[in-house]
Every structure is written in C-alpha cells, then in structure tokens.
Amino acid sequence: MIVQEAKIMENLFNIELKVINMGLEGFAETLKERGTDVMHVRWQPPAMGDDDLLNLLDKLK
Amino acid sequence: MYVKSHILKNTFRDSVYLMRLSSTIREFDGVIEAESIVGTDHNKKFLRSGGLWTEEIEKDAGANDMIIAVKAENEEKAEQAIQSALDELNKQVDRENLLGDFVPRTFETALQNFSGANIALLSIPGRHVRREADKVLDAGLHLMIFSDNVSLEDEIALKQKALEKDLLVMGPDCGTAIINGTPLAFANEVRQGKIGVVAAAGTGLQEVSSLVNNFGEGISQGIGTGGRDVKAAVGGVTMVQGLKALLNDSGTEVIVIISKPPDTEVTEKVLDIAAESKKPVVVNFLGGDLDQVRAAGCEPAETLKEAAQKAVNILRKKDADSGDAALKADQKLAGSEKGRFKKGQKYLRALYSGGTLAYETLILLQDKIGPVYTNLSYEYAETIEDVYKSRVNTVIDFGEDEFTQGRLHPMIDPSLRNSRIIEEAKDPETAVVMLDLVLGYNAHPDPAGSALEAIKEAKEITVQEGRHLSFVTTVCGTDEDIQVRSEQVAKLEKEGVLVFQSNADAAVFVAELLSK
User: Fold this and answer.
1) pLDDT band of A55, cuts 50, 70, 90
2) DSSP assignments along B342-396, one per residue
3) Judging by beta carbons within 10 Å of its beta carbon (0-12, 13-18, 19+), is residue B226 exposed, middle or buried?
4) Contacts of A24 in chain B (CB under 8 A)
C-alpha cells in the first residue's frame, strides 16, 4: 500500500501543477494570475441541458 | 413598472458569473428586479413566476442562449440597465483574454492541446460530474471536485477507480486545497513549509493553513477530501491516501488531520496508520474523542487553532503545549464589554460563512451560554425551526443549502448575511453579533468593507435605542492574501469591532462574555 501512495507523491507532489479547469472561470483566472499553468474548459451541459435528451444519451451509452 | 429583456444567442456563462451579473444589475438605478440566466425551460418558468417575462423570451430564448431580464421603474431605466449589463459583459470578454486565445469546450480537446496536464478541477453541476470525472481519471489525471450534489454512489465509484489508478480524488464538495504551494479554489496564500494537512473540513483547512502561516511556518501540502469521505460508506479512501502520501513525502515533517469525527471504522483505519507513523501527527476530530487519538500516539487538538499551534511547536522541537496553544479569554476586555450591555441584552447571534468555523463555535459554546439554536447538525445544539429568525442564542451557517440555492456562497456575496446583521441589531435581546470573514482566492475582495456597511447601520439602530452591541469577529487568512489580513483587521478595529486571531479565540471570548 505504502508503495502505491508513494506514486501519488511522485506524480503530484514533486511536479509543477498543470491544471485543467472545468466550470467556474474564476478558478482558472486566479490560477493564471498567480502564474500556474492552466487551461480552462468552457464546459456546457451535454444535450444543451435537456434532461430528456440526456437520459436518452445515457441509455444509448 | 416596465419589464425588458435581451437575448444573447449561443452565449454561455458559468453560474457564478451569471449570479454576479444579476446582483450587479439589481444595483443599477431604478432597477426593481433582474436576472441574467441561461434560457433553459426550468429557468424560463422561474422568470415567468418572478414577473420577469417578455414575449421575446417566450419566442426567442433557448437552452443555448443567455437571457438578461430587467424589471425597472420605467422603460428608460430598464433600457439603461440592459445597456450597462451588456457593457459588463464586454468587460468580461476583455478578461477572457487572460485565459488565452484558445478556450476549449470539452475535456478531450483540452487534454489534446495541453500536454503534461496532471490535475483537473471540476466545478460543474453535480449531476454531470461522474461523466467528466471518469474521463479525467481514465486519462490519468488527479482530480479535485469542487461541485456538490454528487451522489454517494458516484463518489464511491470514482474513488475506487482512483485508488486502482494511484490517483487522488479530492471531493466532491471540496472547497479548498493547496498542492505544491498552489492554492486551488477557495484557498489562502500561505508560505510553503513542512506541515502537511489532510482535511475533510473546508474552512478547517483554510483556518489551519492560515494560522500555520501567521505563526511563521508553512504548508507542504493541503489535501481536501470532501466531508463525506470519512463516512463508512466511502471508507475514508482519500483521507487514507492523503495521509499515506504525506507520510512518504520528504517535504512534510509534521502532519495535521482535520475532520468532524469520522465514522468508527474510518477513525480506526486513519489512527492505525497514524500510530505506525514515524512523523508526528496532530489530530483535530472536531468534538471527537481525545483519548482515542492519544492512545494512537498522536497529538490531539481540541480546536483548529490548537492544531496549528501544536504542529508549529512540534516542528520547532518545542513542547506541543508550549506558547499559545491553550485558549484564554481576555477577562478584562470581556468585563468592560459586559458592563456596556443594557438589561435584557443577553444573547449571541453568530452569522457564519464558513461551515467548519460555525461548527467549531458550537463545540466551544456547548454548556457555556445556555441553549444554542443552529441550522447545522450538532448533537448538543438545538435545531432551529426557521433559519431566517434567530432564537435565544443562535449560530447560523449561511453556506448551507437553504441559503445558497440559486445564490452565491456568502464568502463571495455576503449581502444576505449583511441584512441579517441589521435584523439582529433590531432585537433588544441581542448582545453579541459574531462573524467570520474568510479571505483568500475567489472570496469577496473586501469582506471587512462589506460587513462594515451593515455594522455601521446596525450600530445606528442600537445607539438610537441606547444599547451597545458587541461585534466579535475572526478574520481567516493571511497578509499575503489579496485582501491583506492586517488591512482587513485594521478597518474593522477602527470601527470598534473586536477582532480575534482565530475562530477559537473569538468563540472562547464570547463564552466568557455571555457566561452567566
């Protein structure tokens, strides 16, 4: 187990963060202003937020 | 009265942006009510029921469009407000340049164009999280989920998947984290250092990391788990991963664990690992069993401040209890405040924006000032029936769902809490109004300034009626935060507001002030 978590340490704790931000733009902006490497995704609900269509898409999956 | 709308075809803005714009428009001259909102069927029903309805909305607005709807005193004011709203939107377009020329619409496109990405931050509606989070984990990225309303089933599935892939899932409902010195979401700007924190309590992590900074040390990592992680159903997956990762991290010398008391099996799991640790571990299970922590060879802390202070002491090779670890109320100050109350002024009205801070106050006031009513779930406090009306001693967390549906969190928009400050001042039985001001990234740019507008109005009311109202506050943050803690404190103190170093200090002072 300890070995597994050591991996988290290696690939997250000892590197420069590169962040993909999905949702609130403010989070990406503050990271950018602070000099963090970030790419913002202007995420939109799939099927234009139409619940019926979304349920249908889920069934098709 | 005149209602006017403007439809922006194929325009999408996130919910926080839209709510901010709505409140900005409501402040414009002559505006009675306003909304900027996405044109989904649900939202259109909402506009119709709120009297913000036009033929244009009926005919032209669809789920891909953004609607600005304004009710104003007359047509001219309505038109002016719409125009000003559009100007605000254009300002936003300028700001977007900050994000670069390329803003993808999907995770897949982002990944293709951003090689070496190692973590994703999700703040999309909860019901869509699973779909996107699965993609993130499949691509081998760590994940922080800010969103709430993610089902328990989805949380369990995502965390199990992450475990298999040696990835970390912080959240859902994880408001703050600090990874490699980078503050994510609602975090404070703190010095990098040797104290690592794992927290299932958002403002708990903000308070401890800020205090560690203010005591002169720094944070190696601040891992948020989300509150539900420590429930038996989830099994503390992230807390255990985080703790083990900190144990292996050469940059971390002292570990702090913060959480409301986890379910029994999670407590045991976490303490078993901590017991074998060669690194010192300070544990604050808010209101939890101190002896159980001690038996595991860990250092128990009763408050967030004590957790920060003990971690700093241990790091500096001092006795954990030395210095300022124990809390003592300033009796002289309490005495002089007490002397200014009029007969009949006897109750506390604590109006919080940080859930963990409110919870800590409930613990510290237990059995000290008589019954306390609250909208939080705490077994030794009474449940308040009407969250909009205080009763006897009351502690309200304005960050709870009942206050944030369709509204911004009080750390971003304190207007609801500000109105409540004034309401409490009108009650002749109110003696103390207690507030937390939480600084940091993405929070209000000037929480003290905003609170002071209400405090000044409240004081006018009480002065007219010959009463003295005591304002007791804590400012959670650092001088490196964009709001600059010392400037916020100075602003409050100038107006006679009592400011304490930590939430625990403020609560202990209130207990002294209102003790019978």
Assistant:
1) low
2) PTT--EEEEEES-HHHHHHHHHHHTTTSS-EEESS--TTSEEPS-TTS--SEEEE
3) buried
4) 14-17, 123, 146
User: CB–CB of A34 and B183 under 8 A?
Assistant: yes
| Amino acid sitting at position B514 | L
**Contact indicator for B298, B268 with CB cutoff of 8 Å:** no
Let me know how long chain B is.
516
Q: Are B99 and B20 in contact (CB under 8 A)?
A: no
Give the Cα separation of B368 and B374 in Å (integer): 15
pLDDT band at A1 (very low <50, low <70, confident <90, very high): very low
B17 → closest Cβ in A9, A19, A25: A25
A4 inside 8 A of chain B by CB: yes
Between B509 and A61, the more confident residue is: B509
Nearest to B114 among A17, A24, A39 (CB): A39
Residue A49 pLDDT level (bands cut at 50, 70, 90): low
Residue A2 pLDDT > 60, yes or no?
A: no
- The tokens of B62 are what? 């669809």
The C-alpha R_g of chain A, in whole angstroms, comes to 18
Which residue shows structure tokens 């299932």?
B200
Distance of CA B447 to the CA centre of its chain: 13
Residues of chain B predicted below pLDDT 50 = none
Angle of CA points B67, B69, B75, to nearest 5°:
140
Helices (H) and strands (E) in chain A, counts: 3, 2
Domains of chain B from N-terminus onward: 2-89 (3.30.1360), 96-173 (3.40.50.720), 189-326 (3.40.50.261), 331-514 (3.40.50.261)
Given a contact cutoff of 8 angstroms between Cβ atoms, the answer to whether B1 and B56 are in contact is no
Sign of the dihedral defined by the CA atoms of residues B12, B14, B17, B21, in that order:
positive
Instruction: Check: CB of residue B121 under 8 Å from CB of residue B185.
Output: yes
Q: Which two tokens stand for residue B191?
A: 């010095």
Flag if A5 and B98 touch (Cβ within 8 Å): no
Per-residue model confidence (pLDDT) at position B57: 92
Cβ distance A26 to B107 less than 8 Å, yes or no, reads no
Output the pTM of the full model.
0.88
Residue B113 distance to chain A (closest CA, Å) = 9
Torsion angle, alpha carbons of B132, B230, B300, B510, to 10? 80
Are the C-beta atoms of B169 and B137 separated by less than 8 Å? yes
